[in-house]
Amino acid sequence: MSYYDRHVFFCTNQREGKACCQDHDAAELRAYAKQRTKELRIAGAGRVRVNIAGCMGRCEEGPVLVVYPEGVWYTYAERADIDEIIEEHLLNGRVVQRLLLD
User: Fold this and answer.
1) Which of 7, 35, 61, 63 has the highest CB neighbour number within 10 Å of its CB?
2) Cβ(37)–Cβ(48) under 8 Å?
3) Contact 54/21 with Cβ under 8 angstroms?
4) Which residues are bridge partners to 101 per DSSP?
């Protein structure tokens, strides 16, 4: 059994002169996701962990996050997208098709 039910990694990498997730306020939106999971009381051991990741190699598709153990990749643009991922995927186990990356 995994220590966390779901582990969410947000790329927050900053690259000079090249596309990167941080160009889209990835660190701020990761902090928001972490705050929301705490407010919803789904954060912590046996539940959900929201982490920072370095470059995940999908810079042109950014910003990106990935949810494990499912290995589901998302893109997002604003807090409403993060709220939808939390509500649908983290709370209800449903993939958010409109934000899904292949």
Assistant:
1) 63
2) yes
3) no
4) 73
CA distance 28 to 21: 11
| Choices 3.40.30.10, 1.10.3720.10, 1.10.260.40, 3.40.720.10: CATH for 6-101 | 3.40.30.10
Residue 14: what pLDDT?
84
Q: What percent of the chain has pLDDT over 70?
A: 99
Tokens standing for residue 52: 């920072």
Angstrom distances, CA of residue 10 to CA of 1, 63, 70: 23, 8, 15
What is residue 85's predicted lDDT score, i.e. its pLDDT? Answer: 98
- Do the beta carbons of residue 50 and residue 37 sit within 8 Å? yes
DSSP class of residue 97? G
Q: How far is residue 99's CA from residue 57's CA, in Å, rounded to a whole number?
A: 18
Pick from 85, 20, 86: nearest CA to 53: 20
DSSP state of 43: B
